[in-house]
Amino acid sequence: MPDRFIPFSLPLIGDEEIAEVVDTLKSGWLTTGPKTKQFEADFAEYVGCRHAIAVNSCTSALHLALDAVGVGRDDMVITTPMTFAATAEVVRYFGARPIFVDIDEGTMNISPALLEETLAGMKDEDRKRVKAIVPVHMAGQPCDMDPIMDTARRYGVKVVEDAAHTLPARYKGRTVGTIADITAFSFYATKCITTGEGGMVATDDDGYAEKMRIMSLHGISKDAWKRYTKEGSWYYEVIRPGYKYNMPDIAGAIGLQQLKKADAFHGMRTRHAGMYNEALGGHPAVELPVVSQDVVHSWHLYIMKLRLDRLNIDRAAFIEELREMGVFASVHFIPLHIHPYYRETYGYKPQDYPVAAAVYERIVSLPFYPRMSDDDLQYVTDCVRGILDRNLKG
């Protein structure tokens, strides 16, 4: 085994989070309660949205959002194949069909031009079944939202942002979380801020917010969590068959303190990205991440692309050599249309979305998190350059 071990990601938890959790444990209130409600209020203020509902995952947030905008059986939802399983699997929860649109090669975000082309090319009866578009802000870089929103409005389709990678981030001066109809965030252990497991759904629409809040806790009317407070009542009504998606106060307590550090974490991630860019820029076998104009990238992931035509090894061998040196890289993502479920259910082939399929063969996500030291970053880049130099074609 190598002397060095640099994992792909580690959370940065301080004494503040620990103290907040201890305070929660001592309070006797462990499930959804005052800490989670304060986290929601602080998050809404931080993002600049009217409503924020804390839930137990970004998957739950996406499910609630699509339910709120009216997705149902046999409807369609357009998204990108270059994403994690959750983005499309929530569509299947409704008995609806995910429709994939290929990506821009540089940003790896959904292509607005192909989105327009997809909708324009549909039969009228199919177009009417499209209820939502779910753009995914890949690695923390905002999608080109203006043309996406314009297309959605022309066709009467709602937009739900998958912002699992994106806090904080801005597009043309607007904070992600204030642009689309609804936005879903993730607080998984590897994300820009964490609650261990958790998510948040944000919107400016009062009706969507009320529906999502009710559906997040069994479809119970009013403030179900208050039933066991001094102000609460034993009486409740089930309005719809809802879900068990609420965030407990233990997670909310961590989120309260993590949110206070979000800007500092973002500064660290941005600095680390700059160090990677400086160390790897100019290498003949590396393409650096593309950053669009007029955006603030959250830098959840650092994804470089290998120029495989200049190497004697493939991506798998490159990652294995890094692992042997104690550097644990990853791949984000295996495009959904390549996975067995989508191949077998819809008959997809890799070439159906050629840009996503081709990019997938070349991408590598390097270790990337605020806890990394300058020495860690230097070691990773030394390993990367060393492997590439040894395997360059003559």
Describe this structure in words.
The protein is of the alpha/beta class and 394 residues long. The protein folds into 2 domains: 15-262, Aspartate Aminotransferase, domain 2; 263-390, Aspartate Aminotransferase, domain 1 (Alpha-Beta Complex). The chain has 14 helices and 13 strands. The chain has a 7-stranded mixed beta sheet with strand order 1-9-8-5-4-2-3, with helices on both faces. The protein has a 3-stranded antiparallel beta sheet with strand order 7-6-11, with no helix packed on it. The protein has a 3-stranded antiparallel beta sheet with strand order 10-12-13, covered by helices on one side. Strand 2 (76-79), helix 4 and strand 3 form a beta-alpha-beta unit. The longest helix is centred in the C-terminal third of the chain and has 19 residues, at 262-280.
| Total of DSSP H or I helical runs spanning 4+ residues | 14
- The termini sit apart by 31 Å
CATH topology of the largest domain: Aspartate Aminotransferase, domain 2
**SSE arrangement, N to C:** HHEHEHEHHEHEEEEEHHHEEEHHHEH
Number of strands: 13
Mean pLDDT figure: 96
Shape: globular
- Architecture of the largest domain in CATH? 3-Layer(aba) Sandwich
Question: Class of the largest domain in CATH?
Answer: Alpha Beta
The CATH homology group name of the largest domain: Type I PLP-dependent aspartate aminotransferase-like (Major domain)
Low-confidence stretches: none
Radius of gyration: 22 Å
Indicate the structural class: alpha/beta
Percent of residues in beta strands: 5-15%
* Spatial strand sequence of the major β-sheet: 1-9-8-5-4-2-3
Bin the helical content. Answer: 25-40%
User: What about the largest sheet?
Assistant: 7 strands, mixed
